[in-house]
Amino acid sequence: MAIAVKINFDDVYDINTTSCEMKSASFDTELADGNKKKLMVAISDQAHELMPNVYNLAFGPLNANGKIDDKAQIKHRDYSKAFSTILLHARTYLAKNPAHYLGIDGSNNSRALLYYRIILDNFEYLSNYFNIGAMKYYVRIARFGKHQYENPFDFKDVKSSVVKITRDSPRYPEFLYNYFIFTKK
Amino acid sequence: MEDEKVEEKIRSLIEQARTTGKPTKPPRLVSGKSSLAQFIRTKEQADELMEELDRVFNKVP
Description:
The complex is a heterodimer of chains A (185) and B (61).
Chain A: E1 16-17, E2 24-30, E3 36-43, E4 54-60, H1 79-96, E5 101-105, H2 109-121, H3 123-126, E6 130-144, E7 147-164, E8 179-184
Chain B: H1 4-20, H2 35-39, H3 43-56
InterPro entries (chain A): DUF6934
Pfam family, one (chain A): DUF6934
């Protein structure tokens, strides 16, 4: 089932910011069955060790161990409101940290595609608040002569390529990015 | 064009954060590190990616 998401920062859940540095916040999303679930939005505590201004944003419910279950499948009653809330927190963080890059991981293909569609479907609106980029990873496939190794993927040698998302970015579903990057406009 | 109501909301959230007064460590993720943290392992990879980011986001003079 395709999820249509309309981002609108005027229609968001109440955000409870739990850190003065805006590294974490929470809100109660309404589930499809009518119950509520607390979701955490967290921005990595430290930048990537080799890239001083690049931070990761993740979200999800807390599990029993107090970790964010960023792979949880949540059935929201209002996907637009939930994603608008997450992105409003991202925009607020960037207002306070204008030099930072904020990345959202498309942790599997369906999520990556969903995030890309949300960005494209809401590009006119989002581009008022963010510059948006997307990244693909390329993994080398090793071969010996004509033969391919049994496990040919060299995950220690990953190349990345970054593009800026524009209103003309390709819309066909096979087009997939792995990681989305936001800066303050 | 940014909406003034949204800007006010952002200012209010920043103020809310300021008044919490404590730098709370964000919870860890079930999935562990982000894919970016897993894949970008060397200074060469990081420098190459930063160069691309700066180019794409027009941060290069």
